[in-house]
Amino acid sequence: MRALIFGMLLLASPAYAAELDLDPKIIQNSPVLQRWQKQVPNVTEEIKTDPSFRPRIRVGYSASELKVGIEDLRIDRTNFTTSATYQSSNWGADLHYYVRPLGSYLNVAPVVGYRHLNTEGQTIDGANIGIRALFVLSRGGGADISLTQSWVAPFSADETGLTTLSIGYALTHNLRISTEFQRQNSPIQKESRIGIGLEWMP
């Protein structure tokens, strides 16, 4: 990998371009070569810091209900992202902080937020605290798997555990299909849900 990066840097430098007698049209038609001629970037650092995932707008169907939301919207250039989902029986918003560089293929993030649940005619709501693991199979939103374990209204009589497994796969550069499996453990009942949806990546 290092040898490949080093070779790309050499090819992009003006001196090596001249030695290789590159056609000026090739450089004119290549924004990458033009940028690298002005300043050779730190490719290794870019791979680490450029997010391996993209924000997504989601529309789907789960438990006989329409579900909409936004996932992993990055806050400025920090490691914080936010997500929000809505369906009539389960809605809320969360804040995540990824502890590893955002370009990592494996990452972990604490989850803090608020969630409202309707179960068997009863309402459970409160803080939502947990942890998320993200496995990136293909950078740039191509494919990934996330596993989230959180607790709604923790340390109370209504404490409810939510285990969510989400799998996403890109159909085009901007469109993905996603599948979600969720297990809900509440004092009232235990329930499993399966959902499917489409995700738009701006």
CATH topology of the largest domain: Porin
Instruction: Provide the CATH architecture of the largest domain.
Output: Beta Barrel
Secondary structural class: alpha+beta
What is the spatial order of strands in the main beta sheet? 1-2-3-4-5-6-7-8-9-10
Largest sheet: 10 strands, antiparallel, barrel
Cα Rg? 22 Å
Indicate how many domains the architecture comprises: 2
> What sort of overall outline do the alpha carbons produce when their principal axes are compared?
elongated
List the total number of helices.
5
Note poorly predicted spans: 1-7
Q: Could you name the CATH homologous superfamily of the largest domain?
A: monomeric porin ompg
Strand content of the residues, in percent?
over 45%
For the record, the CATH class of the largest domain is Mainly Beta
The portion of residues assigned to helices is: 10-25%
User: What string gives the helices and strands in order?
Assistant: HHHHHEEEEEEEEEE
Number of extended strands: 10
**Gap between N and C termini:** 30 Å
What's the rounded overall pLDDT mean?
A: 87
Give structural notes.
With 202 residues, the chain is α+β, with helices and mostly antiparallel strands. It has 2 domains: 2-41, no CATH class; 56-200, monomeric porin ompg (Porin). The protein has 5 helices and 10 strands, in the order αααααββββββββββ. A 10-stranded antiparallel barrel has the order 1-2-3-4-5-6-7-8-9-10. Strand 3 and strand 4 (90-97) form a beta hairpin. The longest helix is centred in the first third of the chain and has 11 residues, at 2-12.
